[in-house]
Amino acid sequence: MNMYDYIDEYGMYSFEEIPFNEIDATLFSFLSYVDYGKIVEKEKIQLKNVGRMHLGLHNKKERNIRAVEDATNLLKYIKDTNRYKNCYLFNYVYDIENDIQFSVISIEYQKNKVFVSYEGTDAQISGWKENIILACEFPTLTHKKAIDYLKKNYTFTNKRLIIGGHSKGGNLALVASMSSNLLVRLHIDKIYNMDGPGLLKNEFHSSKFKRIQKKYIHIIPENSLVGILLYSSNQKYIKSNILGPLAHDILYWVIKDTKFEESNLTSFSKELHQNINKYINNHDKKEIRETIDNIYNICKRVNVITLVELKNSKKIMAFIKESKY
After folding, report:
1. How many Å apart are CA 199 and CA 138, to the nearest integer?
2. What pTM was computed for the model?
3. CA distance 184 to 106
4. Least confident of 40-49, 56-65, 134-143, 208-217
């Protein structure tokens, strides 16, 4: 069963009938990719109305990013379901500053129960670069924005919070939660990182992480290339229906009833995790950043836009040839 099958089977049930679960958390994490501009701002608006208004404003093809297209299609698919149509969306932020994109939205799925969803990245090479930068910088500009969002909107609240995100958004959810003030942390019930990077070694061993660790859940597909980055705990490895970069896409994650089907991390992902951490531990931040920039610039020169294109033999040969210069 995939995400659409789950919606077909459980979309008729309210959250009172079948409680909020990790599949709902994944779906809500993915909804942050949708462009809610001119529809959602600070005030609450029901999801069913957001979906209808979005069809009117965005009836053309969405920007050419797979996650945005997939999330937009999911919004349209759930807008009239009993489970999701009466959810409220509010406190939407979309901000681009210094070539960094930051977006977040709050979703009230039951009275005074809110899911804070941070936008992540997908298989774009630019998104890969943004994820890897987390290996040499802390806190990043997007980290600071994520922390400020919780402080501004939920320091004084009567709402119970679940914080989550996919890819970079999962890392933002983790960092924002562990760095939030006491009043915010008292209201956080769970933190979901959906195949996003973990933490640098120092932050992983910090008291900030330890104080929220029991609430933290890191969901990682068995073929992960992103969720295995850096250091983490409380991992749940799950089955995906595809190998390679597209395993990052939640639409390929295998669902059984109201949970993901568990699996084991592949030997490739394990080795990648070990090699990347070894490289990070043996190089300083400047060297890591230079390596990231060099690889990114080579990809641009050979017109590799997504990680999926690196499966193309001609693209691989062009990449190898260009990297010699």
Report:
1. 9
2. 0.88
3. 14
4. 56-65
